[in-house]
Amino acid sequence: MKKILIVLILTISSLSFSQEGKFKLVLDAGHGGKDPGANKNGCVEKEIALDVVLQIGELLKNYSDFDVKYTRTTDVFIPLRDRAKIANDFGANLFVSIHCNSSVSPNPSGSMTLVMGLSRSNMNFEIAKTENAVIFQEDDYKKNYKGFDPNNPSTQIGLKILQEETLLQSIEFASEIQNQFKNTLTRKDLGMHQQPLWVLDATVMPGVLIELGFLSNYKESKYLNSKEGRQNFAQVIALAILKYKNQLLGTETPLFEPKVLTPIIIEETKPEIVPIVDTVKTIPLDVQPQVDDQKKYRVQIGYSTTKLDLVPANFKGLLNVTMKQEGNAYKYFYGNASSAEECKKLLAEAKTKGFNTAFMVEDKE
Ligand SMILES: [Zn+2]
Questions:
Q1: 3-class SS at 296?
Q2: Signal as a keyword (predicted)?
């Protein structure tokens, strides 16, 4: 989420539907181009946001009563004001912006949905600050944002008092999204929040900003980066949009049953016990040096609380993977070598495949 922007705006006016009676939805993939957003654990916010947004659009494209517009469909930088303009010019009924969160600590996890509003809580202001900070990456930001300083809440001159009704609609929508995350996807629920975001004068539609999860959290970042995880999020957000529209307009657009998939997440381990294989041993002279042909070495590539099938597809193509259960977790090893030298080659191979934190272990069994 950092350095990104969002443009959410809430709305006031009554919903104006096009003559064809279509529900106009603007899908906004956060960040893009020179602004990658959060970038942690090899997972990039702008890429995840775009993929999820495009998948939501694909799902809703099947509905003839929806008219979907994207702020971007490729990896390009879109200034905040342009995102708002796209929504305004389109006459959108709903604005949905997709982001990923990030923290300096690897611990926080969970999904939250932000509704534009006038909140002064520090936590929300911190998020607003980072999401609004993208303004500084735009040329002429001083002119274009009329002195708005994302770092100073007192200068948020663009904020409007929202009509209660519009705010309630956005809150209702945000609650449904969180409900889907929690109950359908069993993601950690960080709830619905209000936050002050840059609001352009003329923008008048309900809007939410969804923080899918934390890229700074290893496990969550892998979920967000997985094909299955992204597909899961896209499905339930599309479903929440359908429900919101039906409830708001009293329509009966058919819903669909989301197919929740479980991504395979291999957590790479931190080195615990790294055998010192190059140490010169002092052997007493009266002891016959013995060939240590009993030792076996393996490369530990990761662990998971999920028991994985030992097929190459689950381990980035590596063959000959073995597993050992320890408590509730499973350790995964690559190869089987009778010398440390031989094992070093296996280690290099595992790293080439992407297991960057793999390490050698002595097989004591
Ligand atoms: Zn973001």
A1: strand
A2: yes
Parse the chain into domains and list their residue ranges: 23-249, 266-365
Number of H helices, E strands in the chain: 8, 12
CATH number of 266-365: 3.30.70.1070
Task: Evaluate if residue 258 carries a pLDDT over 90.
Answer: yes
Q: What pLDDT digit, counting tens, does each position of 198-239 carry?
A: 543 334 577 888 999 999 999 999 999 999 999 999 999 999
pLDDT of residue 198: 52
What is the CA(32)–ligand 1 centre distance, in A? 10
Instruction: Identify the bridge partners of residue 362 per DSSP, sorted by sequence position.
Output: 297
Q: Which tens digit of pLDDT belongs to each residue from 36-91?
A: 999 999 999 999 999 999 999 999 999 999 999 999 999 999 987 788 788 888 98
Query: What is the whole-number distance in angstroms between the Cα of residue 1 and the centre of ligand 1?
Result: 3
52 and 98 Cβ atoms separated by less than 8 Å: yes
C-alpha distances in angstroms, 67 versus 89, 93, 221?
14, 10, 31
**Which fold would CATH assign to domain 23-249?**
Aminopeptidase (3.40.630)
